[in-house]
Amino acid sequence: MRRTAPTFVLCLALTGAAACTASDTTPPSAPAGVTAQAGSATSVHVMWEAAAEGEGVTGYQVFEDGRLVRELPADKTMVDVTGLGPGTGYSFTVRARDAAGNRSAPGPPVRVTTPAAKAEDRQAPTAPPSVTARATGPRSALVSWAPASDDTGVTAYDVYQGGVRIHTAGPGAGETALTGLQPDTAYTFTVRARDGSDNSSPDGPAADVTTPPDPGTGPDTAPAGFTATASPGAVTLGWTAPDTGRATSEYELYVNGRATTVIQFGTGAVPSGRAEYRLTVTEPAGTVWAMKLRARLPDGNWGAFSAERSITLTG
Known about the structure:
about 325 residues, mainly beta, four-stranded antiparallel β-sheet
């Protein structure tokens, strides 16, 4: 619940009566957990924890040595600050802002130094040779990886989920804790290494993990063991139906983050265990698809998403 504090009262005389509204003058709390990691000789990745729902935060402001460098909406809790100087020290702070325009105090500054520039470095690091992940709670996971190599040295490791970078760790890190996940949800994490010239490696091996449900939330609703295999003119999908207490006849398929079709099994054809479905495709060979699906639950809602699979269509 949001903190209470003295408020000013504004009154206007309307049709002979006084109408009074209380203005919001209570600022949000300062963002917690602010970190800054140099991603290259000219960029720094700044991250922080999302504000609590009761804070009413609508956006964040990122400052470098007191100078505003970026403004972001409330659903963004990380940003790359670019155009920096190689081998230079910087200090970053973050402030939260609410709908009334109140700004939080800045949290403690975080300091970081960009690495020196490497001339004409066009060689990307190798991919991390192994990546593992395990759930540490309904909303958290630990992702670990083996070190990559680079001719000029790795400066950062970027963690991706569903093709979107969600975290950046330092060059000496071999694991990182992720928070803010959803309970009872399947995730697929990959890790890329990056050097001082912003060259990124290919993805390391994908690591799947499913967060446990919160106590009392019921069984896992995500389709398990999801696979996607491309063949000329087609994609074959396979999965194991979730145990929801009733046979699942309807699934929603997402491609590249968007709902594209609903897969329905008719009476007598509903799979009770391993399911398979073949899609006919007309997109050109070489098209990359990231695919995942979720099941229609007995209560009519959609369940949790399966792990996401990335494939390249073939001709």
